[in-house]
Specification:
Layout (H helix, E strand, L loop, with lengths): L2 E2 H8 L2 E3 L5 E2 L1 E2 L9 E4 L6 H4 L6 E5 L11 E5 L2 H14 L6 E2 L4 E2 L4 E2 L4 E2 L4 E2 L4 E2 L4 E2 L4 E2 L4 E2 L4 E2 L4 E2 L4 E2 L4 E2 L4 E2 L6 E4 L2 E4 L5 E4 L4 E2 L4 E2 L6 E4 L4 E2 L4 E2 L4 E2 L4 E2 L4 E2 L4 E2 L4 E2 L4 E2 L4 E2 L4 E2 L4 E2 L9 E2 L7 H12 L1 H25 L1
Length: 349
C-alpha cells in the first residue's frame, strides 16, 4: 500500500518540504535508499546521505538546514527516530493476522482456546491450559498443562511456556524462549549433586517481550515475576525467584542470579551479571560487561565495571590497567634501588 508524503506528514503532525504527492511503500536506511522508500535522518553524521539517497521521502528534524540541494521530499518532525517508530508500528498493525487452528496442531480436550486464536502446525496446548483471544502460537510453540497465556500475544517457533506458568496480555516471545524451566537448584552430597524440586512458577505480566533463546526460570517456591512492560533481549538468563519491576530493559546476555530484585526503569546493557540475593534500585543503568556483587541502594545511578562503580572512576582505572606491565617493571627496579640504598646505608653506619 502506498502513502503520500502529505498523508504521512498529517499522521505525524509534521510539515512537508518538496513534492507532497511523492508516494512510498517501504522503508530503507538512508544510505541504502531506493525509489519508493521512506528513510530518516537523526544523527548529523549521516547528513551527507541526504544529498545522495535514492529514497523518495526522508524524515528530518525541524532544525535541519540543507547545505546543498536535496532531491527527496522532506518531512520535518520534532524527532525523526520517534516518528519512524510510530510509522513502523502502524505498518506492523496493518499486516493481516493469522487465525485458525491447523489440523497438525495439538490441543488437549480440557484446554480453553479463545476467539481468533492461531495455532500453527505442530503447536501444542496441554491439559487445562488457557489461550486468550487473538493470540498466535507458531510452529512447535508449546504451552504446558495448567499454563495461561493472555490475549493478543505472539509466541514464535519453539517457544515453551512450562506447566502452571502465566503470560499476560500483548506479550511477545521470540523463537526458542523458555518460561518456567527449573531454577538451578542442587544440593551437594558425598555422591554428587541432588536436585532440589522447583515447585514454584514463572509469571510474565502484560506487554513483556522476550528475545530469542531468553530464559525465565520458575521459582523454587512462589514465583519468578517479570512485571509489566519489561523488555528482555536475546540470550538473557533470569534465575529462580527473581523479580524484575516494570519497564526495565535487559540487553543481550544479561544474567541475573536467583532471588535478586531489580527495580523499575533500569537498563542493563550487554553481558551485565547480577549476583544472587541482592537488590538494584530504580532507574539504575549498568554498562556492558559489568558485574554487580552487592546491593545498589541509591536510585538513578549509572555504573560500570567490576564491581560496578562510577563510569568516570572505572575509565581512569581502566587506563591505569593498560600500563600495569610497565608499572610492574618500574616497581621492581625501584625495589631493587631501595634495597641497594639500604644496604649501602647499613655499611656506612
Amino acid at each position: 500500500m502506498d502513502f503520500t508524503a502529505q498523508q504521512i506528514a498529517e499522521y505525524l503532525h509534521g510539515t512537508v518540504e518538496g513534492d507532497a504527492s511523492k508516494a512510498v511503500h517501504t522503508f530503507a536506511k538512508i544510505e541504502e535508499g531506493v525509489e519508493g522508500a521512506l528513510s530518516f535522518l537523526s544523527d548529523p553524521k549521516y547528513e551527507p546521505y541526504v544529498y545522495q539517497t535514492a529514497s523518495s521521502v526522508v524524515l528530518v528534524p525541524n532544525s535541519f538546514q540543507p547545505a546543498q540541494p536535496v532531491t527527496p521530499t522532506l518531512i520535518r518532525v520534532q524527532d525523526p527516530r520517534e516518528a519512524l517508530g510510530r510509522l513502523l508500528m502502524l505498518y506492523e498493525s496493518m499486516k493481516p493476522k493469522h487465525t485458525g487452528i491447523d489440523p497438525l496442531a495439538f490441543v488437549a480436550p480440557t484446554a480453553k482456546i479463545g476467539k481468533d486464536v492461531y495455532l500453527a502446525p505442530f503447536a501444542a496446548v496441554g491439559d487445562n491450559a488457557v489461550i486468550g483471544d487473538g493470540t498466535e502460537l507458531h510452529p512447535h510453540a508449546t504451552i504446558g498443562a495448567n499454563a495461561k497465556v493472555g490475549s493478543n500475544c505472539i509466541l514464535y517457533a519453539n517457544c515453551t511456556v512450562y506447566h502452571d506458568c502465566q503470560v499476560g496480555d500483548r506479550c511477545i516471545l521470540h523463537a526458542g524462549s523458555v518460561v518456567g524451566a527449573d531454577g538451578f537448584g542442587f544440593a551437594p552430597t558425598p555422591d554428587g549433586y541432588e536436585k532440589i524440586p522447583q515447585i514454584g512458577i514463572a509469571v510474565l505480566e502484560d506487554d513483556v517481550e522476550l528475545g530469542a533463546n531468553a530464559c525465565v526460570d520458575r521459582a523454587t517456591m512462589g514465583a519468578t515475576i517479570i512485571h509489566k512492560g519489561v523488555k528482555i533481549d536475546n540470550l538473557v538468563q533470569v534465575g529462580h525467584n527473581v523479580e524484575v519491576q516494570s519497564h526495565t530493559v535487559l540487553c543481550a546476555q544479561v544474567g541475573i542470579a536467583g532471588s535478586s530484585k531489580v527495580g523499575e526503569w533500569c537498563t542493563f546493557t550487554g553481558q551485565v551479571g547480577i549476583a544472587g540475593h541482592i537488590s538494584v534500585a530504580d532507574h539504575t543503568t549498568i554498562g556492558a560487561q559489568s558485574g554487580v556483587p552487592g546491593n545498589i541502594r541509591k536510585p538513578g545511578q549509572t555504573l560500570m565495571g567490576y564491581p560496578a562503580i562510577d563510569p568516570k572512576v572505572w575509565s581512569r582505572a581502566a587506563a591505569v590497567y593498560k600500563t600495569l606491565p610497565e608499572m610492574a617493571v618500574e616497581l621492581r627496579e625501584l625495589q631493587k634501588e631501595v634495597k641497594e640504598l639500604r644496604e649501602k646505608l647499613a655499611i656506612e653506619s
